[in-house]
Amino acid sequence: MSIAQLQMVADWENQKEQKLLRTFQTAQQYVQDNKKKLSGLEQYRLDYLRQAQTKAKQGMAANTYGQHQMFIGKLDKACEQQSKIVTNAVLVADQRKLQWLQQQKKRKAVEMLLAKQQKSLYLRQEKQEQHMLDELSLQRFIRQSKHP
Q1: Is the separation of the CB atoms in 114 and 3 below 8 Å?
Q2: Which of 70, 103, 117, 123 is in Cβ range 3.0-4.6 Å of 17 for a Cys bridge?
């Protein structure tokens, strides 16, 4: 594979890595957003529960108390669902991170191969230049030896 072709592959692998990085970052943001939602929901549930307890101590009708309990049950269910969303989002973010890191390894491997080929080409060119300089020096020496 030529250096130009290898450079194209390196560029392509880099683009894939950047795309996977953006996907991972989006997944991380989704996790953070859903953790905030869960935290807010849990805080709302706690505040509502405290208010209901305060009202219950002051005295409230049984049907009103039952309605509060039903609503707290709904909040519990919502917290449970949001917790599952967070758990799944974390799993997805971990998968995206793994894909990004694997792609990063691929890119680095291609870049190492490219650098190795570029170094090899440079060394061959250096050798050719040195050979040409040696040849010129030899010819100059021969000419000078013939014409003192």
Answers
A1: yes
A2: 103
**Number of domains making up the chain:** 1
Which residues have C-beta within 8 Å of that of residue 56, sequence separation ≥ 6? 65, 68
C-alpha distances in Å from residue 15, one per residue of 4, 5, 38, 92: 17, 15, 35, 21
Task: Identify the domain containing residue 130 by its residue range.
Answer: 3-146
User: CATH number of the domain that 69 lies in?
Assistant: 1.10.287.1700
Per-residue pLDDT tens digits for 85-121: 999 999 999 999 999 999 999 999 999 999 999 899 8
pTM of the model: 0.73
Degrees to nearest 5, angle at CA 115 with 110 and 120: 125
